[in-house]
Design goal:
302 residues, alpha/beta, eight-stranded parallel β-barrel, 48% helix
């Protein structure tokens, strides 16, 4: 009988919590749909990051908080169902006040995510490496963190509190906010966009919670390897854009060649067999054969 991806969100959450509490740093590439998540799993990663920015851009939108709650939940569910990996999900501002945060946590948990992060920007939010962010008061965000903790039904569901204060008010405010969110009970803290290695080190010394680092190549933060971050005490590093940037580059090359030459270079694209293996076609067809012609069977030709 074929083996489909395991559907064990509770186990995945427990494993994630144990890992960020004391294991080596966890590297989570950004994904934006079920297919990109499958590619990350195939590459051997132990977790994936459902990037709000990448999901927005995959919809043809900039990372300005334009996708709504329902659109994000649907995509999180698609990603979580595609892989047997913990999904760390971007929940932006929580899509409203503390009461909305409660609904967001329940919906992300039900969709199969293992963790989510909430940020202290005012809506509409902006990518943390753009200019022009606005913040909500520290006390309001601390209340959102408490609401998130109370809303989860699985105690191993990881709540990550993000602050964008570095870009707005400077590092001192970012540290104060990170400490306050840790005191409110956040399982992990994410200080977005530190400007230097010294600031990265100061964050690690100041906040007594597992820390997340966002690695983005054209952003404001220093480019550090996972082992360097691990040595500083960071427990999770996300790479939100790598897969999507590579996909854009690859699609442009293939389509430029197709337009120019009437075909895309065979050496620069996956085979049909690779593609079908990635989506477990044979396993589905085996199941369809068990159910007879009504199940679809191997008469499929696409």
């Amino acid at each position: 009988m074929p083996t489909m991806p395991m559907r064990g969100p509770t186990t995945l959450r427990t494993n994630l919590r144990v890992r960020i509490a004391g294991g080596p740093i966890l590297v989570a590439p950004g994904v934006f749909d079920g297919l990109s998540a499958r590619v990350a799993e195939e590459a051997g990663f132990e977790a994936v990051y459902a990037s709000g920015g990448a999901i927005a851009r995959s919809s043809g939108m900039p990372d300005l908080g334009l996708l709504d709650f329902s659109e994000m939940v649907a995509r999180i569910r698609q990603i979580a169902q595609a892989v047997a990996l913990p999904v760390i999900a971007d929940a932006d501002t929580g899509y409203g006040n503390a009461l909305a945060v409660r609904r967001t946590v329940r919906a992300y948990e039900e969709a199969g995510a293992a963790a989510l992060h909430l940020e202290d920007q005012a809506a509409p939010k902006r990518c943390g490496h753009y200019e022009g962010q606005e913040l909500i008061p520290l006390e309001e965000m601390a209340g959102k963190v408490r609401a998130a903790l109370e809303a989860r039904t699985d105690p191993d569901f990881v709540i990550i509190a993000r602050t964008d204060a570095r870009a707005v008010n400077g590092l001192d405010d970012a540290l104060q906010r990170g400490q306050a969110y840790a005191k409110a009970g956040a399982d992990m803290v994410f200080v977005e966009a530190p400007r230097s290695l010294e600031e990265v080190q100061m964050i690690a010394r100041a906040i007594s919670r597992p820390l997340l680092y966002n690695m983005t190549y054209s952003g404001k933060s220093p480019l550090l390897r996972p082992l360097e971050l691990d040595a500083l005490g960071y427990r999770l590093v996300i790479f939100p854009a790598d897969a999507q940037l590579a996909a854009i580059w690859g699609m442009r090359r293939a389509l430029a060649a197709l337009r120019r030459d009437g075909r895309s270079p065979e050496a620069e694209r996956a085979t049909f067999a690779d593609r079908d293996a990635l989506v477990h076609l044979d396993e589905y067809l085996t199941l369809a054969d068990r159910y007879g012609r009504a199940g679809g069977g191997r008469g499929l030709t696409t």
